[in-house]
Specification:
Rossmann fold; DNA polymerase, domain 1; 13 helices; globular; binds S-adenosylmethionine
Length: about 300
């Protein structure tokens, strides 16, 4: 495993501190990934804090299992969508918990494997499913959805101002041949944007790939469903910490947290989002756009 396939947990110390990790408490990591945050939570809640870890990706769960092995008996890992956290916790006989963490987006493990189709830098199938048992892939969206629907998601989920031209070019190309791989699609996107308008600091395909990933994995719908039930899953003084990586997610989190504070149901622990230090970003560039927000349930 090289450096890039190791997922470095973002804002790890801040997660532990905002979750107020204590012995004997129960925590849920709704996006357990490689288990980096989970490990830190178990360490900080030693000797008997308990962690329930969820992920839709079975490969991530296998990694987490390895990372958490030293804490045997203090955790349970489950394949599941955090959008169904209420139902999952009930089935585990655990209706309310002391803290929940969501670390949204994809992991370095997912990005590093070309076959998963998340990266425009490596040739792989246009897949992008975090949950391999779900049916919708990026290839289906790219090759089957109407030009209008493509434009709408690229604009809305990618916040891409060239969405119209990109959608039109995708449709033109796919009438000649199917767009099958990540690098083929990246090239089609780059061709659609006049070269002088290519973004300086990111690849021209970055925003469209983000849009496709959000659509394939229904990321915003999942976050909304979770936010609708989150307060019912926390004990009094229970904490919720969410790390988001783009403005669409952060906006949903910020709006929900503010509303709960206004209704007197929760106390905001972060008036402004917590962002990684320059030092952390240098060490872990993936942390660049992370924003952490936290509340305490009243
Ligand atoms: C950024 S990674 C988490 C990394 C983890 N915090 C760590 O320190 O290793 C996000 C993880 O969330 C998972 N994921 C994304 N959407 C999910 C959902 N709706 N339910 C459960 N897991 C999800 C992804 O498969 C990925 O493994």
């Amino acid at each position: 495993m090289d450096e890039k396939t190791i997922h470095i947990p973002v804002l790890k110390n801040e997660v532990v501190s905002y979750l107020n990790c204590r012995r004997g408490k129960v925590y849920v990591d709704g996006t357990v990934g490689g288990g980096g945050h989970a490990q830190a939570i178990l360490e900080a809640s030693s000797p008997d804090g308990f962690l329930i870890g969820l992920d839709v990706d079975t490969e991530a769960l296998a990694q987490a299992e390895k990372a958490l092995a030293p804490y045997e008996g203090r955790y349970e890992l489950k394949k599941g969508n955090y959008a169904q956290m209420g139902t999952i916790l009930k089935a585990l006989g655990q209706e309310k918990v002391d803290g929940i963490i969501l670390d949204l987006g994809m992991s370095s493990l997912q990005l590093a494997v070309p076959e998963r189709g998340f990266s425009f830098l490596h040739t792989g199938p246009l897949d992008m499913r975090m949950d391999k048992s779900s049916s919708l892939t990026a290839a289906q969206i790219v090759n089957r959805w109407s030009q209008k629907r493509l434009m709408d998601i690229i604009k809305q989920y990618g916040e891409e101002k060239w969405a119209g031209r990109i959608a039109k070019h995708i449709v033109n190309v796919r009438t000649k041949h199917l767009i099958q791989t990540t690098t083929q699609l990246a090239e089609v996107i780059a061709q659609a944007i006049p070269r002088r308008y290519w973004p300086r600091s990111i690849h021209p395909a970055t925003r469209t790939f983000q849009a496709l990933r959000i659509a394939v994995n229904q990321e915003l719908e999942n976050l909304k469903s979770f936010l609708n039930q989150a307060l019912n899953l926390l004990l009094s003084q229970g904490r919720l910490v969410i790390i988001s990586f783009h403005s669409l997610e952060d906006r949903l989190v910020k709006t929900a947290f503010k509303q709960w504070a206004k209704e007197g149901k929760a106390q905001l622990l972060t008036k402004k989002p917590i962002q990684p230090s320059e030092e952390e970003v240098k060490f872990n560039p993936r942390a660049r756009s992370a924003k952490l927000r936290a509340i305490e349930c009243i």
